[in-house]
Design goal:
The complex is a heterodimer of chains A (74) and B (621). Chain A has 74 residues and is mainly α. Chain A is built from 4 helices and no strands. The relative contact order of chain A is 0.21. Helix content of chain B is 43%, strand content 18%. In chain B, the strands form 3 sheets. In chain B, strands 11, 12, 13, 14, 15, 16, 17, 18 and 19 form a 9-stranded mixed β-sheet that branches. Chain B has a 5-stranded parallel β-sheet with strand order 2-1-3-4-5. A 5-stranded parallel β-sheet of chain B has the order 8-7-6-9-10, with helices on both faces. In chain B, helix 24 links the parallel strand 15 (529-537) and strand 16. Classes of the chains: A mainly alpha (74), B alpha/beta (621). At the A-B interface, helix 1 and helix 2 of A face helix 3 and helix 12 of B.
């Protein structure tokens, strides 16, 4: 699962998969702006067939946050 | 990511690196079917890399003006356009700034010099009163006001840009305030939306080069529950659900494809398990499934859809591995055949590979492979054709015959905005001419007028890419036409290929735009003269001294071919008065008393290019 999330992040944000770790997030990746954050969230929804609440989307600010949130939903 | 998705991406990258566009498209098609969202993102990012700039894609500048967040549309739109050989450059206007962008002459919209402007404005934005707090009595004046606003915006846009304009119509409100009664009352909410859409269509029709995107039908086709994401509508002004974005992009891509002249003109069909169920060679004429009962009726439905394409102007052909006599028998004897043998312009019925059949059909009908679509149920045949000719659009008939019509039509491969490329631009051209007329009034002298037009004249030899237009010109031009000889494409091609002929097309650009190919001359070396067989000019550019440039060019041709004179004749018709004095006013002498034959002795005189024209040779891309 982490691998699939990593791939979406890398694809949306234009990052190398290998550089993405727990703490990679909106505060330290320039391309991770609010627009791309939505792209990330929608991409993950489609990939895992889940639907986030807006509060969940707003709560996920790092790769670690996303993994934890998705884990709780699938 | 699935392993095969990873492999496909690697293959696309390798093909792009090698500049092998057809192969990249082939793999990209597969990836798109498997994972549309990530495919679009991946492709757009890859195409944006500077080293990809040299790929042979046609650039198209698209401006997106919208009432909602259309940023999410960029990836799927670029990906869809890539599959039509287009590289999109998108100008994204700020959120809901479409009015300012159009009204401000210094806006980013005009600075982006768009080829296409998309006005993705929802009904709610034009007419909030139709969507909430609906009052039947106020609908009509509100619609009037919005129609006036739209008209002004379109006219302003048209006066500043010759871009094609695509205007979304309005999807009706999901929940009508009167509930079930809305459809019955005299002036319901959804009826008001329909009335607005009528006015929107009229406003688009009043402006050249504006088209309605039937957003209401698109939403209906996919269904409200699938189409809208209320959460994202409220949170990010992005009402269209993410899984629906490719469908919206594909709908726009149909217009872009048609504009780029990439619509398919010919459909090549397989027979067994495509036009009917079963295998003719095994089941026999009476055993194939075709008729009023399922599954035969599914094949009847497909044949009806194909016949409708033919009525629309699509050329039909057959590529089938079959015994020709059996096929003849089906056409002659099977009562449920909707399609008749005479509906097909070509047929390749034998046991040789279908790639060769398609090539033969293309040659026979003189249609480029990029204008051919191929319909077949057999995945092996489909793959064979795809890999042999990646430019052919392959439509695989789904396993369930009832899904065949949808497969044939949903990509809009045959959709056109007019009948030919030149027809498409005619609207804009008439406008350009009107503007040129207006300019003429304000110019002091005619030379000044010619100069102010900033005209560029481009000559090109008659060749494959302008053959269709050349033949069309001989067939359609009535006024400025010296001999009014009508030629087919094949006849023009034959003359163009003959070294004793000098054939040239003439394209004219001016400050109002590109008029396209508007003139043609064909002349043949005969004895010691070059004899003009065809000399014509579209009425769009009559009276601009283009004919003088064409004669100057013919003088050059004559000298190059070693001719001593240039000869031409006028064949008077009821309509060609504008061409009658062509030779006389350019210093030709009457070749014989009383005859309408003229000769220019090149030893004594010549014809110069008018100084206000910039003359260039067409560069073939």
């Amino acid at each position: 699962m982490e691998e699939r999330i990593r791939d979406i992040l890398s694809n949306v944000l234009g990052l190398e998969s290998a550089v993405i770790d727990e703490g990679t997030g909106m505060d330290n990746v320039e391309s991770w702006d609010s627009l791309n954050h939505i792209n990330v969230c929608l991409g993950i929804e489609q990939e895992f067939g889940i639907s986030f609440e807006v509060s969940e989307m707003e709560g996920m600010r790092t790769f670690g946050d996303i993994v934890a949130t998705v884990q709780a939903k699938v | 990511m699935q392993a095969d998705e990873r492999t496909l991406r690697a293959e696309i990258l390798a093909a792009l690196d090698a500049g092998d566009l057809p192969r990249a498209l082939l793999r990209s098609d597969t990836l798109r079917a498997a994972a549309p969202a990530s495919h679009a993102r991946f492709l757009r990012r890859e195409l944006a890399r500077p080293e990809r700039a040299s790929l042979p894609l046609r650039p198209l500048r698209v401006a997106l003006l919208s009432s909602f967040s259309t940023e999410f549309l960029h990836d799927p739109l670029c990906a869809a356009a890539f599959h039509d050989g287009l590289r999109l450059e998108i100008h994204q206007a700020g959120f809901a700034t479409y009015r300012q962008e159009i009204l401000d002459p210094a806006s980013g919209l005009y600075a982006s010099r768009p080829d296409v402007v998309v006005l993705a404005v929802e009904g709610r934005s034009w007419l909030p009163a139709l969507y909430s707090g609906f009052l039947a009595s106020e609908a009509a004046p509100a619609i009037d006001a919005a129609a006036a606003e739209l008209r002004t915006l379109l006219e302003t846009l048209r006066s500043r840009s010759d871009a094609t304009v695509l205007v979304f119509n309005a999807a009706p409100p999901v929940w009508a305030e009167l509930g079930v009664l809305d459809a019955t009352v005299e002036r319901g909410q959804r009826a008001a939306t329909a009335a607005w859409n009528d006015r929107l269509r009229d406003a688009c029709r009043a402006v050249k080069g504006a088209y309605v995107v039937d957003y209401a039908a698109l939403v209906a086709r996919h269904g409200w529950r699938n189409w809208y994401d209320d959460r994202m509508a409220l949170y990010a002004a992005a009402p269209v659900a993410a899984p629906m974005l490719p469908a919206l992009a594909d709908e726009l891509a149909k217009f872009l494809r048609a504009l780029a002249g990439r619509a398919r003109k010919c459909l090549v069909v397989d027979l067994d398990n495509t036009l009917w169920g079963g295998v003719l060679g095994e089941d026999g004429v009476s055993g194939i499934r075709l008729g009023p009962q399922y599954p035969g009726n599914a094949y009847v439905a497909l044949q009806e859809a194909i016949l409708a394409l033919r009525r629309r102007g699509v050329i039909l052909a057959i590529a089938s591995k079959n015994n020709p006599a059996d096929v003849d028998e089906v056409f002659a004897r099977h009562a449920a055949m909707v399609l008749k043998r005479e509906h097909f312009a070509a047929a390749e019925i034998h046991w040789n590979p279908k790639g060769g059949s398609i090539a033969a059909i293309a040659k026979r009908l003189n249609i480029g492979l990029e204008h051919i679509a191929f319909l077949d149920d057999n995945p092996v045949e489909c793959e064979h054709v795809r890999s042999t000719f990646p430019m052919v659009a392959v439509i695989q008939v789904p396993e369930r015959p009832e899904e065949a019509v949808r497969a044939l039509l949903e990509r809009g491969l045959f959709d056109t905005l007019s009948f030919s490329d030149e027809d498409r631009r005619r609207g804009a051209l008439y406008e350009q001419r009107d503007a040129a007329e207006a300019l003429r009034v304000s110019s002091a002298s005619v030379e000044e007028f010619y100069g102010s037009l900033d005209m560029e004249v481009l000559f090109a030899p008659v060749q494959a890419d302008n053959l269709e237009r050349s033949a069309q010109l001989t067939q359609k031009t009535n006024q400025f036409n010296a001999t009014t000889l009508r030629y087919t494409e094949a006849q023009v091609a034959e003359r163009a290929a003959d070294p004793s002929w000098a054939c040239a097309t003439v394209r004219v650009k001016d400050r109002f735009g590109d008029n396209g190919i508007v003139g043609l001359s064909m002349a043949r070396a005969e004895g010691e003269d070059l004899v003009i067989d065809t000399f014509l000019l579209s009425c769009r550019v009559i009276g601009r001294t283009i004919e003088t440039a064409m004669l100057a060019r013919l003088c050059e041709d004559a000298r190059r071919l070693g001719a001593r004179g240039l000869r031409g004749r006028i064949v008077p018709t009821a309509k060609n008065a504008p061409a009658r004095d062509l030779y006389e006013r350019h210093g030709f002498a009457r070749a014989a008393e009383g005859a309408d034959e003229w000769r220019l002795d090149l030893a004594k005189g010549s014809i110069a290019y008018p100084p206000w024209l910039r003359i260039a040779a067409e560069v073939t891309v």
